């Protein structure tokens, strides 16, 4: 690959986020190989009511992988990383960039052991998207990613250049990742209550959200994030300003009976709080409840 060539790309996990990025890559000419769990003949992206159809098949057998590629975009749920390992083994060689499109602040630690020799690049995924029953993905905002100013990010920027998915880089990735984590932590309340953004309109849930987010903020700062005192209120205001029917991916998982990403989105605050000696009394209640909900109804 030269500086001007498009990298060879694979997308692993063509769900809400993976389909969006795979369609963007396809439109930009990058011809992604798409690896999934459920076979499909095409990818469908609903953008404001108009459906973009990309004739990109979803392959489900790792033996069909084309061999090592320059860039793997990993967009399975964090709970599904171990199951995606056979794909990573076939698609990566030393030097492959694995860009992890997952919520959380621990993408490097989670994925590096599954892709030895690869360069793991975490990403903050700022846009919401949802899967419809026929596997069409509905885009709910302009696709936008933030990556660290770090080796490997240039390959992602090049692959998506000029596409519908904007990619920026920052020298303060910790702050960006924790800013997003605060949103995700609060969204856990939707999974617990079985309600959408409208639940944040309640005064009692608003007060709980603010108290919880102040706890998350203390841990974020201890981890080096440069976030202001106003961040909890900003996150709450954003949920209150969203359409009341707007959900979150962890609620979609709860509704579908799938395992929840409770550890990377909520448990992490409790774990890192303990490591820093920061009390996390609200996490101490919420995290076991989310973990229990993740285990299923029985
Ligand atoms: N959805 C959203 O709005 C946002 C999500 N995120 C984060 O992005 C990440 C991805 O979330 P999202 O796109 O919602 O998740 P989805 O559940 O929509 O997509 C996951 C995809 O991975 C596939 N998959 C599961 N196991 C494997 C496997 N072993 N090999 C290959 N593919 C597999 C699933 O297959 P199958 O179709 O069979 O289930 C599905 O297509 C998560 O970390 C989430 O927190 C971040 C910002 C917003
Ligand atoms: C859209 C958003 C920000 C809501 O928490 C998200 O990251 C998700 O759904 O996983």
TrEMBL record:
<dbReference type="Pfam" id="PF02558">
    <property type="entry name" value="ApbA"/>
</dbReference>
<comment type="similarity">
    <text>Belongs to the ketopantoate reductase family.</text>
</comment>
<keyword id="KW-0566">Pantothenate biosynthesis</keyword>
<dbReference type="InterPro" id="IPR013752">
    <property type="entry name" value="KPA_reductase"/>
</dbReference>
<feature type="domain" description="Ketopantoate reductase C-terminal">
    <location>
        <begin position="172"/>
        <end position="292"/>
    </location>
</feature>
<dbReference type="InterPro" id="IPR036291">
    <property type="entry name" value="NAD(P)-bd_dom_sf"/>
</dbReference>
<dbReference type="InterPro" id="IPR003710">
    <property type="entry name" value="ApbA"/>
</dbReference>
<dbReference type="InterPro" id="IPR008927">
    <property type="entry name" value="6-PGluconate_DH-like_C_sf"/>
</dbReference>
<protein>
    <recommendedName>
        <fullName>2-dehydropantoate 2-reductase</fullName>
        <ecNumber>1.1.1.169</ecNumber>
    </recommendedName>
</protein>
<dbReference type="InterPro" id="IPR051402">
    <property type="entry name" value="KPR-Related"/>
</dbReference>
<dbReference type="Pfam" id="PF08546">
    <property type="entry name" value="ApbA_C"/>
</dbReference>
<keyword id="KW-0560">Oxidoreductase</keyword>
<comment type="function">
    <text>Catalyzes the NADPH-dependent reduction of ketopantoate into pantoic acid.</text>
</comment>
<dbReference type="GO" id="GO:0008677">
    <property type="term" value="F:2-dehydropantoate 2-reductase activity"/>
</dbReference>
<keyword id="KW-0521">NADP</keyword>
<comment type="pathway">
    <text>Cofactor biosynthesis; (R)-pantothenate biosynthesis; (R)-pantoate from 3-methyl-2-oxobutanoate: step 2/2.</text>
</comment>
<feature type="domain" description="Ketopantoate reductase N-terminal">
    <location>
        <begin position="9"/>
        <end position="151"/>
    </location>
</feature>
<dbReference type="InterPro" id="IPR013328">
    <property type="entry name" value="6PGD_dom2"/>
</dbReference>
<dbReference type="InterPro" id="IPR013332">
    <property type="entry name" value="KPR_N"/>
</dbReference>
């Amino acid at each position: 690959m030269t500086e001007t060539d498009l990298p060879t790309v694979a997308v692993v996990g063509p769900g809400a986020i993976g389909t969006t990025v795979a369609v963007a890559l396809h439109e930009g000419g990058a011809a992604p190989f798409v690896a999934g769990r459920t076979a499909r003949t095409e990818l469908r992206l609903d953008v404001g009511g108009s459906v973009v159809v990309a004739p990109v098949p979803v392959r489900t057998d790792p033996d069909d992988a084309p061999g090592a590629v320059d860039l793997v975009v990993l967009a399975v749920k964090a709970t599904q990383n171990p199951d995606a390992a056979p794909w990573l083994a076939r698609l990566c060689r030393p030097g492959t960039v694995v860009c992890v499109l997952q919520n959380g602040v621990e993408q490097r630690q989670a994925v590096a052991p599954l892709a030895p020799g690869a360069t793991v690049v975490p990403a903050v995924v700022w846009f919401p998207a949802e899967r419809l029953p026929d596997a069409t993905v509905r885009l709910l905002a302009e696709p936008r990613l933030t990556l660290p100013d770090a080796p490997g990010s240039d390959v992602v920027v090049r692959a998506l250049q000029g596409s519908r998915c904007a990619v920026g880089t920052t020298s303060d990735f910790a702050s960006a990742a924790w800013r997003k984590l605060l949103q995700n932590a609060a969204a856990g309340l939707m999974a617990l209550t079985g309600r959408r953004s409208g639940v944040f309109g309640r005064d009692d849930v608003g007060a709980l959200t603010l108290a919880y987010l102040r706890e998350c903020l203390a841990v974020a700062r201890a981890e080096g994030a440069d976030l202001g005192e106003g961040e909890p209120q900003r996150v709450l205001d954003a949920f209150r300003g969203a359409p009341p029917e707007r959900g979150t991916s962890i609620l979609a998982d709860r509704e579908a009976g799938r395992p929840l990403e409770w550890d990377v989105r909520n448990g992490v605050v409790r774990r890192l709080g303990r490591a820093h000696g920061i009390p996390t009394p609200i996490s101490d209640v919420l995290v076991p409840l989310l973990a229990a909900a993740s285990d299923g109804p029985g």
